[in-house]
Amino acid sequence: MSTLIKCELIKLRHSLSIGMLFLLALLPIVINMARPLLIKQQYQLFDLYFPLYNQYALFFPLVVMMVATAVFYMEYSNGTYVDWITYGYSKQKLIISKLTVAGLVLLAMCLLNYFIMALGLLLMVHATIVEVLQMTASFWGYSLIVILLNLPFGALLINISRNAIITTVVGIVCMVINAILMAAPFGYYIPTIFAYRFGLLPISQSDFFSNANFAASVGSTVTIVVICCLVTLSIWQFSRKKPIEN
């Protein structure tokens, strides 16, 4: 497995699309960093973090799906799919190595985003250690859930369609739906909405659901079940023999 992961990392080393996605993921953070520079007033940490988080939460699920698309689509676009699946490894190991590498890329992306965000905010405003820890829990809590959800979802879509445009369009549609339903009182039934509200919990309990205990219990259960289903489906779908392999 380690050999496969190394091979996948080597493939991505010269990938322009991954580099572009790193820059794309930074957009909400960079744009929101400009706010205190343009509008001069006294800010608290969460005055700046909250709008930044909202835009990041809207945009990041799409970035996750695009990373998943980029990692898998290179085999289809370069015509190396058949060569890849004849490495001598099981297809389960092949897809797990791809998912692992995509996950590592996304974690690196989150680390970069967090570092720039935290550094920028702390240079602009005074914050206590507790506030920094709350912001950290908010950012990483949301980011990790979305990675676990949208990475296998993106992998499933790209391996079914073998079309990057279709996967991207689906990601954009999901982004719009998330934007519409972010404040929905039943959002704990929708994993990505639950992830958004869960990320708000460390910084503002009032922005979580009104029936907090029930919402946390149901939302966590639904999210875990959906993650398990998506991972299982993505591996099962990829492991099936496709017409291109005949």
UniProtKB/TrEMBL annotation:
Bilayer-crossing regions: 12-33, 53-74, 95-127, 139-158, 165-190, 214-236
Alphabetically ordered keywords of this record: Membrane, Transmembrane, Transmembrane helix
Origin: domain of life: Bacteria
Protein name: Uncharacterized protein
